[in-house]
Amino acid sequence: MRTLFRILFLSAFPFLLCGCGIYSFSGTSLQPDIKTIMVANLENRAMQINPTLAANLTQELQDKYRRLTKLEMVYDEADLEVSGYITGYEITPTAVTADEVASRNRLTITVRIIYKNNKYPEDGFPSGRSFAAYQDYDSTLSIDSVQDALCQQIIETLVEDIFNATVAEWR
Prior knowledge:
The protein has 3 helices and 6 strands. By secondary structure, it is of the alpha/beta class. Strands 1, 2, 3, 4, 5 and 6 form a 6-stranded mixed β-sheet that branches. Helix 2 (53-68) packs parallel to helix 3.
């Protein structure tokens, strides 16, 4: 009888946690009264501009919140507000050969994200926080030939980091 009780309790425990708003299997830890989110269009303020980067990053962020939370996406006042801008888009050499020639280059993208939690202001970072991600590539390749693939990988990393720092509270 005790074994049956333990099995029932252990199988129901995850659902109890989700129902109480304490934990969700998407990794979010939102209060139950948080219902809406606004993800503003990110600006590109970097010295070097990739024309599609801001739009792609904004779209991926919005998609992530739609997929992994129950939050309603709104375009004005919301319980949670995510905004920001791209501050850096840089290509730097990372590996140099004996001939002092770069054999690998690194594309680094940096963004400044402002996160406001209008219901629980202590949970936000309204003055902003920087996030950066990079991908290395062979210097024999032109940036034009690898830029789209590199940017997509970098965007995935940035979106994951921003999501975790906001609604998953992995700071």
